[in-house]
Design brief:
The chain has one domain: Undecaprenyl pyrophosphate synthetase (3-Layer(aba) Sandwich). It contains eight helices and six strands; from the N terminus they run H-E-H-H-E-H-E-H-E-H-H-E-E-H. The chain has helices at 9-15, 32-38, 43-63, 83-106, 122-135, 151-164, 174-179, 226-238, and strands spanning 24-28, 68-75, 110-114, 142-149, 191-194, 213-216. A six-stranded parallel sheet has the order 3-4-2-1-5-6, sandwiched between helices. 36% of the residues are buried. The structure holds 3-methylbut-3-enyl trihydrogen diphosphate (IPE) (2 copies) and magnesium ion. Residues 29-34, 74, 78, 89, 196 line the site of one 3-methylbut-3-enyl trihydrogen diphosphate (IPE).
Amino acid sequence: MQIHKLYTKDDLASFGLTGALPAHVGIIMDGNGRWAKKRLMPRSFGHRAGIESLHNIVRECIKLDLKALTVYAFSTENWKRPQQEVNTLFSLFIEFIVKEIDELDANRVRIITLGDLAAFPDRVRICMENASERTKNNTGLTFCLCLNYGGRAEILRAVRNIAASGADPASIDEKLFSDNLYTAGLPELDLVIRTAGEQRLSNFLLWQAAYAEFVFTDTLWPDYKPENLRANIIEFMKRTRRFGKVVE
Ligand code: IPE
Ligand code: IPE
Ligand code: MG
């Protein structure tokens, strides 16, 4: 159960990370299938390699002392994949949590899931619920796993919840709406990274990405290393975020 030391100011400076780090990073982990194909291996081989990348990237986010990391693990559209691939992904989600939970908990990581877990087999749902319950009081990195997540489904769910609450339409503002999303209480999404060359959101954090910065990299997810994350964060830090204002 390794406890990871936070990077010191000097460590960060040696990486070139001298400004304000993003508080909340979202990652669309893409390219597992292509990574396996290049090796003439089945897609499941790529997903397994992808879990190893996730292991390394979560640790890097702990050391960087980020507030939140949200990873896209299974979209509402991923049900369209062959059942065998979907089952492999379920098994890998469970394996990941079982292997990682002690260390993540020891490092004060709070695990939450974004998405409708009810559609998953009990074994997946219960594993995720237990991980969230066990880590719910942790105050370090919030690690959000998007599982059966879709931005549109999330928005519809918020609309339904608000309508069911009988709220006066005039009282519905952005704060109330955000409070009804899975990401309620999390810091604003600062940076979205997508691996494997595609330049689209694929239904990831639609509301939350309103003012996020985007970094697209050709690196396939199983090849994505902590140094890639640091390089992508440096790219983020070079951007001028205007939020509609005039910035000299
Ligand atoms: C991302 O890799 C993992 C999930 C969507 C679960 P892909 O499986 O989409 O890999 P490619 O895009 O086919 O290479
Ligand atoms: C997005 O990747 C979903 C996840 C990373 C979980 P996809 O590979 O499913 O997205 P598309 O099909 O290229 O849009
Ligand atoms: Mg893909």
